[in-house]
Automatic annotation (TrEMBL):
Active site, UniProt feature: 92, 155, 456, 626, 690, 999
Keywords in alphabetical order: Hydrolase, Protease, Serine protease
CDD domains: Peptidases_S8_CspA-like (cd07478)
Name this protein carries in UniProt: Peptidase S8 and S53 subtilisin kexin sedolisin
Organism for this UniProt entry: Alkalithermobacter thermoalcaliphilus JW-YL-7 = DSM 7308
Protein origin, superkingdom: Bacteria
Sample GO molecular function, one term: serine-type endopeptidase activity
Amino acid sequence: MSFEVIVKYHSDLTRLEDELEVEVEILNEKFAILTLLDESIIDRLLEYEQIEYIERPFILGPSLTSFQASGIDLFKVRTDLSGEGVLIGIIDSGVDFRHPLFINQDGTSKIIRIWDQTREGNPPEGFKGGYEYTKEDIDNALKGEEIPFFDNIGHGTHVAGIASTIAPNAQIVVVKVGVRGLESFGRSTEFMRAIKYLIDVSTELNKPLVINISYGSNEGPKDGSTLFEQYIDDMSLRGRTLVVVASGNEGDKSKHRHLRLLNNMVRPVEFSVGSGEDEITVEIWKKFSDDFSISIINPSGVRTQKIDRNSGVVDINLGNTNVTAFFSSATPYSLNERAVVILRGDNFIQPGIWSIEFESQNIVEGDVNIYLPISERLSPDTKFLDPTVIRTITTPATSSRALSVGSYNHSINAISSFSGRGDRRLKVIKPDIVAPGENIVSSLPFGGFGALSGTSMAAPHVTGSAALLMQWGIVDGNDPFLYGQRLKAMLLREARRDIGFINYPDEAWGYGKLDLSRINTRTLNETYRKENTQEFIIMYEGDIISALNEKGIDKVQIIDRKYAIVYLDGLDVSILNTIPEVTYYKRPFRMVPLIDTSVDKVGGTFFHNHPYIPLTGRGILVAIIDSGIDYTHPDFIYEDGTSKIVSIWDQTLEGNPLDGFIFGKEFTNEQINEALFTNERLDHRDDTWHGTMLAGIIGGRGGLNSNYVGVAPDSEFIVVKLRDQGGYYKSSDLMLGIKYAYEVARRMRMPLVFNISLGTNEGSHDGMSILENYIYEISRDRGMIFVAAAGNEADKMTKLSGIFNNTGEIQDVEIIVGPNQRQLDVMIWARKPDKVSVSMVSPTGEFVEKIPAKLGEEEFVRFILEDTSALVRYRYPEELTGDTLIEIHFDDIKPGNWIVRLHGDNIVDGRYNVYLPNKSLLSEQTRLLRADPLGTIVTPATAESVITVGAYNHIDNSLYRASSRGPTRDDKIKPDLVAPGVNITSTIPGGYGTFTGTSVAAAHVAGAVALLLEWGILNNNDPTMYIQKVKTYLTRGTERRAGEEYPNVSWGYGTLNLRRAFEQIRGIEAWIYPIELRKGEDV
């Protein structure tokens, strides 16, 4: 028997084929599937530095007058759209291509490719298995030639029939998954291959693609963090693609139980096991901060011992049933941890009432979710006795970028009992939308028609509708970016919300019912924004250099295979809309240093000379991407006179640019040492002292004064001096600084901590900005850890939160503009699918009437009496988030009280946020009249893939008044923790100075992370350290004030204490993923 695993990797995997005799199948530059002849090889895989994480495949099963109810018929009559020029990808049990529904009038097939993964002999190019049929093969088969391709269960034929009836001129590409005779189930690896194949076909034919997945699994934490779901998110950004996923049919199947644990609590959870079950895997998901034990009790009352995260793998027999149980650590991509209980019978598991008894040990959050496998794999009698309906959505419908579809009965206007639900309280806002899914008549094999029910039937309603809209936007040229999150937002915004007692978005109904009739293409404005700045960060695919050169754009800075920076000289930004390889673009943010005007407290010096755990940051790199560094300061020089700085890239200097860069000058360690020995100064200097200050806290050696030793004195620095734009830096330059440091670390094969002590009030404040997406890509590599300052905006009155209670409501945002404020930007974010527009009132009372919110609308207005102009841009929806963004740029603004009047044109969620630029970019008196300290975390600290650090005063144990607070705009808890940040002494050129701010606090944490990486990776105690695991270690060790409830939006999980973090680590077994894979289900 062969075994498959999914791996996240970097570099080259080909040598594994010879050394381990495994089959390597590359999906893209980050993900691959390995086929192993022996499961024991899994242990050896983690010895390879290229392999960052391993996940075994999930087993997925299908989720089984409607056009009129969804407004599809009316929309098609009104627009005459048919899906022409669009591809529909069906990943399912196959399709009966001979069915009349899939045959054109000329006798040829609408199906242009079929990849049958259940049959060998003719794999598609780039793949190693299956059999591909071309359109020519299919057309010849329609003429009488025999090909052995069938849909044995009819599921895929029914699904494809629904989508094709809605979009009859769309072409279809089919991937059949599963094992011959067992097409009801497919492994997640098969779906990952299928997605790559479909996107490859879409790219080859240069056609937009909507993918339908009507399968699901109960495996995974249901937070979108599995490699399978990350892969869907990643591939959703490649090509002009939308992935539609059914939410699953587990709503009424009693396969989920939610438990709320408190300290000093013992709680049993009972489930029945039906007759004939031979193996059942129970997954238990908890937050990393919670500790409890479990005991398993069989129907005869015989129990196991207490099992917790220190127990390792427990293997015991209870009567005729073998019980295997273990706890695993948080994955690199989630703060959730898993416990697994596997029941195996000699012949069959003992039927009856089983129980898992939970006993709390240390509870911080207390939410526990327990899952049995999906209902299609079990007897109806195998179920929880007290099930929970919420959080029954299946994997991969919890993928953040997938459009997840639930089911409702359109005949009686009621949610389908089987439809998988999300969990609004725990921020699982899924499904996204619902569509008819009960008694849906569609095609069946052998030319027939019949009615089936399930979310499988709801999803293709959305798939076909998306194909119509892609035709209008992309094929017909009305909106070339109408795919992915932008298309998803349009469908959610126009969903029908006609149930009065529902508070949308709802955990069952999502944002409402699919209703295409509400979308009026005539009112969708095709005007695209025109920017004054000539520098843009872009997301791209394909040969972007050639594509840009063809348009006369020859100044391009490539960041990686997804991101680049383009410089437009004399060209209008609209030219980017004409380049298919450009999938998204955004002007750079303005980043400001997060400083407003210790080490012992965080437990750092405790380890410097510890007899058993001596940690100083040896062998760890720290990237300081900031204002530069005083490389001559004695605190950065070793006893032998050499520098601890590996290299400096000064972006402000001209010279011979580095390979892969188009500006700046690099100073190597050898050049720095030569300058130190000869006293000949390098051109590099730190003009603002900010970078030098950060370096001293992180890794100063106390060379000038031994009282001021940094947290990780033996760590080494990579320094990037950013180009000062006059009080701020560009996020594009920051991204290049990250790229530079990353490449140096990869070349030196050393772990790297990125210290980001810059931030901006620009961006979506939910971790979805292009900068934060790039950070996420880098952080998925082992040993690449980002630490970001939370910001100093809590007391600056630059942010306001509000809520509309009803459609039609008007609310005023008052802005006090001080003298010398020549320009002002106002950024307004509203939650999808709300529609908000603005009007304005000047200090003299001049009124600008409401500017209607339209797709891409841009309007220039002038205030005559003030002689002030304003440019209003609607990004509705914003491409990366699907939310509404309104940007107002005032030019030559005059002092006084300005009013931006918000009009709630269409309100479902109601929440909105208003941001001014960071206070350091405003005049002293410019502020919001009414402001809110919550939700003031700056970009990129809102990203889940960074450790976000607030500041506190370690002398009196009080929160620093300006320390930015959470939550993020999508309600995640931030900061992660706080560290000393008030009146901290650190290095400045020639001496020491005192500093305050969250950048100071972040530097403490960056140093602490360097010590952790030394312990884990350098000392081989935990060689697989990723961002989430480091975050877990740090937050587990935090100190918490009595009377505070944690985690909270001010203190996060508490104050940094590295010594306590190591005390918490003591006794925990090493990384357990290989054990999970050995004990998990055969694949």
